[in-house]
Specification:
- The complex is a heterodimer of chains A (671) and B (338).
- Chain A is an alpha/beta fold.
- Chain A is 49% helix and 9% strand.
- In chain A, helix 4 packs across helix 18, helix 8 crosses helix 13 and helix 17 packs antiparallel against helix 18.
- The N and C termini of chain A lie far apart (65 Å).
- Helices cover 51% and strands 13% of the residues of chain B.
- Chain B is built from 14 helices and 8 strands.
- Chain B has a 7-stranded parallel β-sheet with strand order 4-2-5-1-6-7-8, with helices on both faces.
- The longest helix of chain B has 28 residues.
- Chain B is globular, with a radius of gyration of 21 Å.
- The chains are: A alpha/beta (671), B alpha/beta (338).
Chain lengths: 671, 338
């Protein structure tokens, strides 16, 4: 009998990060320095939505969004402030940036140069995966083709000049957050990798013998859900499939270059508003999925906080999340062993079935004409919406149990949310005004001629096939703003609106009595009002959280409403105009980015101007209780948040709100 | 508060629609959609009060049809941009299928029709086809009329391949069929005579290159012998909504057909004929073939209706009345003496 070696050299702990940034570069810099002093080993920058979608703080579309969900970076001055006293030559910085990745990386390089650091020394990551933006994350700007060109420009540039940079993080994280199953996550992430790597190979920017470096620098950003055994198998499947793909399709000989390197944020979609303390258990268990198997262990982890579904985390909440990682890595014996799952036939069989499923789905994408085509035709998005709808129906029927949502719902009052701040972080409303003031001062102080010359150069390069990076770095040094850089490219590349994916067939599920009676209510109310009930679901502002709007739209269709939905990122003006033209009985606005007060106020005053004040308006999304009260005083008929997870009840409510606003009597409770 | 029994005043509404006021048009469309008897009466009056000339003798009513995803909405957006540059006001009726299970519908065409700028001279209304499978919903005709009263161009988008899009060609002045590159379906349907020949054919997504050129060539070959019913030579064009190419030519082609109709003095007779067909179809739904026969038969009725010159609802109500009095009188008598 041979002795099995159970102990090996202790594994290095993964990089521990906290995804953060808010209000201003200065405030975020302070936060980063505190986090680093607490033992965090890398930085993960969250940008605000205007920065992510290429608008300056004073753009009309930025209203209400500046400094809310991340840090506003408008120019090199902001970037320098963000990393004040943080030596960029030593830091490992991950930036969640996509459509404007080339620009933010340029600002980062320029800021490093001003710190006296050569770009070749920089370490870190730009997310730079535009494909999942169309499918889930929503901060795309340009059509797929020019977007992919920007992606490949960043990759080629860094592989040639910044050898330790991870130029792209192919993301399956966001796909799971939009409802993807493990098989879909594998299939679509790897199909995305193929689209990107093929594009680089075909761009001619990389010499054939350097292509292995591109593959080696390609990393992934993956999700880990609560079914942690399956998730662990998914990671092993990823590693195996990537190894095979890079060997066979891209002929990479060096095994080190074929290693599947990935970072993780664990699942947040399943984190609940009711009994939010349970989220801590969920997060810890999910972390096991990506750490148990040494062979497929994450390189970097960032965790959400217990109050994920309530609003933005405060520093203490983030500290708690960081400590979860530290306890696992430092106190437990996890890192002392080799791969503890090797040799398990159960694990092996599960991995095999995931791989088989993923290969079949990759074949489907291939038949659609590849990932880009499958985005444009809406195929992949429809698959995701279908999966998410199936999940919602399973929660509805009780087949999928979630503690606090559809089982064990009784609870004592939670002390966690009892504080004066309701347990979440509030961004100072003055942040936007102050950012605009700083922006104006910056604009006034720069050399206008240099800015113009740099922008003209950018224009020429963008219209050519040359790499966009050098021209962008020149813009960064010249003092070009985020909005100006993006404007030039918008003019040349055009803008894009992605398919919504909601045009899926009704799932073939036996309708419950509840659904039947809802349909009857919808139909009858339509008859009483003379025409079928018609609603508009609108997503105002820069918010890309489409799940809620999509699910509400599909559900409403399935109980008999006629539903107008035009996708994300519309102005209140566009939404109100559509409501007028469509003659809807009700308007539902969905806002999860925290800018609900500004956006709703805007929409309501426009409705008043058009004489549409009688049309009831409801709001859904992340709305803290005190804001809910505020919205209701402005005439909002109802507010729904993640705790309202029973969509049948929401639908029954919508019918009643329409009845009431038309002078009909309300129906009683649904049975 | 608005109550279910508040109906708009048709006289005020008609005046405002004639003045091309947007809120009035929105209300008028709601009223035309409203099935309650009182709403129907007011809708009939509304249509009667609208300028007859705009409804039946001028403007341009265009049908855009083709398979799902061919790019009808994207082409509409591109056409709107051109029409607006030419100073024309545009209204769109976008028709989407209803779910047979729930009766609900997802109306998503607007997403692709937005050209980037808020423009009050463009008006888009989505409509579910509500159980009229393979066809247009009954509301399309009256809604098109009220839109014609306020806009220069009214475009109706419907999904359809083969037999299904025939409906829209029995409704509009000019029917445009949008073909999908590399999909042989439309050609097969044309060849087999299953599909009524449209007035214009356009292969969209010309930016895809070879596949689009091939489809265009096949369509042209198929069309050669197939003149339209009435000596109108059907053009087959290529366009790319994505890149904005071929759009001006398409707009020109569409307008050429309008001019041709005017020259042939067909525009107005066609609209009246389509209205008559619409009325007849509704009567047929209610009273069946027997009902139509008892009213004098299809061709006689069509002729009578096309000459009547009143609104579709009035025509329908008059015929209905005639049928009921023909039919009910003796029946009532019978009921009285068991
Ligand atoms: C999934 C998710 C994502 C996905 C979104 C995928 C997608 N396509 O939707 C991804 C990973 C892409 C994502 C990204 C980001 N996210 Co996020 N995300 C979430 C998460 C975990 C769940 C939201 C969700 O989809 N729930 C499921 C759906 C079905 O529920 P729902 O939308 O709440 O809808 C229900 C009700 O609210 C209501 N409702 C909602 N809308 C409507 C409309 C109508 C008409 C009606 C009747 C009802 C209704 O009914 C629904 C049914 O119950 C939340 C936290 C949480 N657990 O809630 C954070 C959260 C919303 N995200 C947040 C942030 C900050 C971001 C980022 C902006 C981070 C950044 N700086 O880059 C990015 C960028 C996104 C963008 N472009 O705007 C914050 C927002 C903070 C705030 N408001 O103060 C949250 C609260 C997390 C947190 N605590 O920080 N996110
Ligand atoms: N390559 C290319 N794609 C196009 C073009 N026009 C439209 N598309 C794409 O084709 C898809 C469908 O476009 P739509 O305009 O919604 O097509 P539609 O015919 O209105 O679709 P339905 O109303 O759903 O039947 C979208 O993804 C468009 O981006 C084009 O000219 N070239
Ligand atoms: Mg369409």
């Amino acid at each position: 009998m041979t002795s099995v070696k159970t102990e090996s050299k202790k594994d290095h702990p993964w990089l521990m990060r906290t995804y953060s940034g808010h209000s201003s570069a200065k405030a975020s810099n302070e936060l980063y320095r505190t986090n680093l002093s607490k033992g965090q080993t890398g930085l993960s920058v969250a940008f605000d939505l205007p920065t992510q979608t290429g608008y300056d703080a004073d753009h009309p579309l930025a209203r209400g969004e500046v400094g809310k969900v991340g840090v506003p970076i408008g120019h090199i001055g902001d970037m320098e402030t963000l990393f004040d006293q943080i030596p960029l030559g030593k830091m490992n910085t991950s930036m969640t940036i996509n459509a404007t990745a080339a620009w933010l990386l340029s600002l980062y390089i320029a800021a490093a140069e001003r710190q006296g650091v050569d770009q070749a020394q920089l370490q870190g990551t730009t997310q730079n995966d535009i494909i999942k933006e169309y499918l889930s994350r929503g901060t795309y700007i340009f059509p797929p083709e020019p977007s992919l060109r920007l992606t490949t420009d960043v990759i080629s540039y860094t592989v040639n000049r910044i050898p330790k940079w991870n130029p792209t993080n192919i993301c399956s994280y966001h796909l799971q957050e939009a409802g993807a199953t493990p098989v879909q996550e594998l299939a679509y992430a790897l199909s995305t990798a193929i689209a990107v790597l093929d594009a680089i190979r075909d761009s001619g920017q990389i010499k054939a013998d350097a292509f292995a470096n591109v593959v080696g620098r390609t990393s992934f950003f993956v999700n880990a859900g609560i079914r942690f055994i399956e998730e662990c198998c998914k990671m092993r499947a990823f590693a195996a499939m990537w190894e095979q793909l890079t060997r066979e399709r891209y002929a990479v000989d060096d095994a080190k270059m074929r290693r599947f390197r990935y970072g993780v944020q664990v699942n947040s979609l399943g984190l609940t508003e009711p009994q939010p303390e349970n989220n801590v258990q969920r997060i810890v268990l999910e972390m096991l999925g990506v750490t148990l198997s040494k062979k497929a262990r994450a390189r970097a982890i960032q965790l959400p906080a217990w109050n994920e579904a309530l609003g933005l985390p405060r520093p203490w909440d983030q500290q708690w999340a960081l400590r979860m990682q530290q306890v696992l890595a430092i106190e437990t014996d996890l890192l002392e062993y080799g791969d503890i799952l090797d040799g398990s036939p159960i694990i092996e069989a599960k991995v095999r079935s995931l791989i088989d499923g993923a290969e079949a789905e990759m074949q489907r994408v291939h038949e659609e004409g590849g990932m880009i085509q499958a985005i444009e035709t809406g195929y992949v998005k429809r698959q995701l919406v279908t999966s998410h709808t199936a999940r919602m129906r399973a929660i509805e029927s009780g087949d999928l149990k979630i503690i606090g949502i559809n089982s064990f719902t009784e609870t004592a009052e939670s002390p966690l949310t009892a504080g004066g701040d309701s347990g979440i972080m509030k961004v100072d409303p003055a942040a936007e005004r102050e950012q605009i003031e700083r922006l104006n001062a910056f604009r006034a102080a720069r050399n206008a001629a240099e800015v113009e010359a740099a922008l003209n150069n950018l224009k020429d390069i963008a219209s050519s096939s040359e790499n966009i990076m050098p021209a962008s770095i020149r813009c960064a040094h010249a003092g070009v703003t985020t909005g100006e850089w993006s404007r030039v490219l918008r003019d040349i590349f055009g803008e894009y609106r992605a398919p919504t994916g909601i045009d899926i067939a009704a799932l073939n599920l036996a309708a419950s009595d509840t659904v039947d009676s809802l349909r009857e209510r919808t139909r009858k109310t339509g008859e009483e009002l003379g025409r079928p009930l018609k609603i508009l679901v609108g997503k105002p502002g820069l918010d890309g959280h489409s799940n809620g709007a999509e699910q509400i739209a599909v559900k409403a269709r399935d109980v008999g409403f006629e539903v107008v939905y035009e996708g994300i990122r519309l102005t209140p003006e566009q939404i109100v105009k559509a409501a007028e033209e469509e003659g809807v009985h009700l308007i539902g606005l969905s806002v999860l980015s925290g800018s609900h007060l500004e956006l709703v106020e805007d929409a309501m005053s426009r409705l008043g101007e058009l004489g549409l004040s009688e049309v009831p308006v409801i709001v859904g999304g992340i709305v803290p209780p005190e804001d809910e009260a505020n919205l209701k005083t402005r005439g909002i008929a109802a507010v729904y948040t993640p705790k309202d997870s029973d969509m049948n009840l929401i639908m029954a409510d919508l019918v009643n709100i329409i009845r009431e606003s038309n002078g009909l009597e309300r129906y009683g409770a649904l049975h | 508060m608005l109550t279910s029994s508040t109906y708009p005043d048709p006289d005020t509404l008609a005046a405002a629609v004639t003045e091309r006021e947007r809120p009035a048009l929105a209300k008028a469309l709601n009223l035309l959609d409203d099935k309650r008897p009182e709403a129907r009466r007011r809708a009939a009056r509304l249509l009667r009060l609208l300028p007859h000339e705009r409804l039946y003798a001028s403007g341009h009513l265009i049908g855009l049809t083709g398979p799902p995803g061919a790019g009808k909405s994207s082409l509409t957006a591109a056409l709107i941009t051109i029409w607006r540059k030419r100073g024309l006001r545009v209204a769109v009726l976008a028709v989407d299928p209803s779910s047979p299970i729930s009766g609900g519908a997802l109306l998503g065409d607007r997403l692709r029709m937005f050209s980037g700028q808020i423009d009050n001279e463009v008006f888009i209304r989505s409509l579910a086809c509500r159980g009229e499978f393979g066809g247009l919903s009954a509301e399309v005709w009256p809604m098109s009329l009220v839109m014609l009263a306020a806009f220069d161009i009214v475009l109706v988008e419907t999904v359809g391949v083969g037999q299904k899009e025939i409906d829209v060609s029995r409704l509009t002045d000019t029917t445009v069929f949008v073909a999908q590159p590399a999909s042989g379906d439309s050609i097969q349907f044309l060849k087999a005579g299953i599909m009524e020949v449209p007035h214009l054919l356009v292969v969209n997504k010309a930016d895809l290159g070879l596949a689009a050129r091939k489809t265009l060539a096949e369509l042209r070959a198929t069309l050669k012998p197939a003149l339209h019913e009435s000596s109108w030579q059907v053009p087959a064009l290529a366009a790319s909504a994505a890149q904005g190419t071929g759009i001006a030519e398409l707009a020109d082609g569409i307008d050429a057909h309008r001019l041709w109709l005017l020259e042939q003095k067909q525009l107005s007779p066609r609209r009246k004929k389509f209205q008559a067909e619409w009325v007849l179809k509704r009567l047929g739904e209610e009273f069946g073939r027997f009902g139509i026969e008892s009213l004098g038969g299809t061709s006689a009725l069509l002729m009578e209706l096309a000459e009547a010159g009143s609104s579709p609802f009035e025509q329908y109500d008059a015929m209905r009345q005639r049928f009921l009095s023909n039919w009910n009188a003796p029946q009532r008598e019978r009921l009285k003496c068991p």
